[in-house]
Amino acid sequence: MSTVTTTKPAPTASGPAPVAAPHGEGRIGLRGNLRHIGALVRRNALQIKQDPESMFDVVFMPIIFTLLFVFVFGGAISGKGNQAEYVNYVVPGLMAMMGMNIAMGVGTGVNDDFKKGVMDRFRSMPIARSSVLIAKIVVELGRMMVAITILLAVGFLLGLSIKGPVLGLFLAIGLSAVFGASLMWIFVLLGLTMKTPQAVQGMAMMVLMPLQFGSSIFAPPTTMPGWLQSFTDYNPLSNLADAARSLINGVPVGDSVWMTLVWSLAITAVTMPLAVRKFRQKT
What we know:
Elements: H1 30-50, H2 56-72, H3 74-78, H4 83-116, H5 118-123, H6 129-157, H7 166-193, H8 197-213, H9 226-233, H10 236-249, H11 256-281
């Protein structure tokens, strides 16, 4: 009776055979990325359609803020009866503020999606990780455009006038969108880092309040103390507000447009890779 002996292969110095890597986003081409982003944008847009209440902030925030600041602070800043002059000052500034407030909602939304397990489902799919976050940014930019449209409509009703070329108005809107998108990456990173949506909102308010009120959005910095004027000069919201104001009112923009673009590119270059990396690693 013969005996069959089996021998195990000798271990090699290289260790066990490597496991084949799953399909990652590095193998997905540009067309595939765009297709995934489009599908996710459609999914996020359908969510808004199913929950119209999620648009309440976009619809009512520009109306409330415009009426509040024009009729409460307009007389004190521009003089009684000169609210129309203040409208041309504050409405371009409020365009900058719309981007910040909507950006805060991106962070809470991303955090809430992780709590519900939606993001885990996306990460299990063979899609680019960045496409999930970019789709969020695209939809929020659409919401921002709605808010700015309503803001301008209210401004025109209150006496806003375009004193420069109409192209300046569209350039101001585009500049606000570019800067708003860069801010959204900050809040996406916050949403991926903080444990709860409430924590994201609390941290966002700590950032938003000094930046908004320590800027040239609501009042000229010349009325502020010297130390606050120094802060205002380096505040990116002041650069955006001054740029939008100059473009709409037809006055020289100076360095405000370039400074806003530099801030936008710098913020995006730092926070976007960090957000995508955190999205991959988050448990």
